[in-house]
């Protein structure tokens, strides 16, 4: 029986090239297990009296149907696909609300595309993505620009960023599940950033490296020793981007503060969203009992 990674893979789709990238990434993740793919389109919020008019309701249904029709066609007639559309004051708010509703009764992940101003093959968040990652209630996955044109058949190499925190351990757990389900190679990368230590203090740097290596070894043991782990020195964002240069997915944990079960971008993940060479999956902050 196929492993179910998420109950729902929610794809933000508006007919743009960026949403086609999101759809391609959602389809790739949805092919791993029996997840339902939710095609989400957000319509402009209308006054209450306008929403009650029959002519408006009919026009809205037709608009959503016509816009999502290419997405349904791209999914090759999958049976586990459903549309979802709500009125909202903004696409980010609407996607946030939809994700919240779907994740109340099961696990879900939200897939979006990069901004149209990003370079080909890179992940760069647009305004909608920036707003979503400020408090998304579920994992958020961002496709690089042009991803729809070169979608891999499966995940063959997955990289997880690790700093020993609870958030990075949660990210490693999900990366391990995806790697096991796809028989992909898993690499866990920890980075010691020497700028946070006293300049020229090699002893502190060595202790920092040894401590991170010890925590990484423990985390590897927790997932059964599957995968390879390494600790490198340098800028965390640049080192992780380099490690993911030939990967199909980079998995990160949200920053260590903010509400539980929400994604809040820290400085490392924010920078990676501008330089990552592959899709990025950011996990929300776990609750204390998880």
Q: What does this entry show, briefly?
A:
The protein has a ten-stranded mixed beta sheet, with helices on both faces.
Features:
alpha/beta, elongated, 10 strands, ten-stranded mixed beta sheet, 39% helix, single chain, 290 residues
Overall geometry comes to elongated
By oligomeric state, this entry counts as single chain
In which range does the helix fraction lie?
A: 25-40%
| Average pLDDT for all residues | 83
Structural class: alpha/beta
Which sequence of SSEs, written as H and E, runs from N to C?
A: EHEHHEHEHEEHEHEHEHE
Largest sheet: 10 strands, mixed
Low-pLDDT runs of 5+ residues are 257-264
Q: Number of helical runs?
A: 9
Tell me about this structure.
The structure is a single chain. The protein has 290 residues and is an alpha/beta fold. 39% of the residues lie in helices and 21% in strands. It has nine helices and ten strands. The protein has helices spanning 17-30, 48-51, 54-74, 91-103, 127-132, 166-182, 202-222, 236-243, 267-275, and strands spanning 8-12, 36-44, 81-88, 108-113, 140-143, 157-162, 185-192, 228-233, 249-253, 280-283. The protein has a ten-stranded mixed beta sheet, sandwiched between helices. Helix 6 links the parallel strand 6 and strand 7 (185-192). Helix 8 (236-243) crosses helix 9 (267-275). The chain starts with 7 loop residues before the first strand and ends in a 7-residue tail after the last strand.
């Amino acid at each position: 029986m196929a492993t179910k990674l998420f109950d729902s893979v929610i794809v933000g789709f508006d007919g743009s090239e960026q949403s086609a990238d999101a759809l391609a990434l959602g389809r790739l993740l949805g092919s791993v297990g029996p997840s339902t793919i939710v095609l989400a389109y957000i319509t402009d919020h209308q006054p209450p009296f306008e929403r009650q008019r029959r002519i408006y309701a009919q026009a809205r249904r037709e608009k959503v149907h016509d816009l999502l029709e290419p997405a349904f066609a791209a999914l090759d007639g999958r049976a586990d696909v459903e549309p979802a559309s709500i009125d909202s004051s903004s696409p980010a708010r609407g996607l946030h609300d939809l994700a919240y509703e779907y994740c109340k009764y099961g696990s879900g992940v939200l897939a979006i595309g990069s901004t149209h101003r990003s370079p080909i093959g890179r992940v760069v968040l647009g305004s909608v993505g920036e707003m979503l990652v400020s408090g998304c209630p579920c994992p958020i996955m961002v496709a690089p620009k042009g991803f729809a044109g070169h979608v891999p058949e499966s995940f063959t190499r997955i990289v997880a960023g690790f700093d020993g925190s609870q958030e990075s351990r949660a990210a490693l757990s999900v990366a391990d599940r995806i790697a096991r389900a796809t028989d992909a190679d898993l690499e866990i990368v920890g980075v010691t950033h020497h700028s946070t230590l006293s300049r020229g203090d090699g002893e502190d740097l060595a202790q920092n490296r040894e401590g991170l290596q010890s925590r990484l070894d423990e985390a590897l043991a927790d997932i059964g020793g599957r995968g390879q782990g390494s600790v490198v020195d340098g800028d965390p964002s640049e080192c992780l981007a380099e490690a993911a240069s030939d990967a199909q997915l980079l998995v990160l944990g949200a920053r260590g503060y903010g509400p539980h079960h929400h994604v809040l971008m820290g400085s490392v993940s924010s920078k990676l969203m501008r330089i990552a060479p592959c899709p990025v999956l950011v996990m929300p902050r776990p609750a204390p009992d998880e």
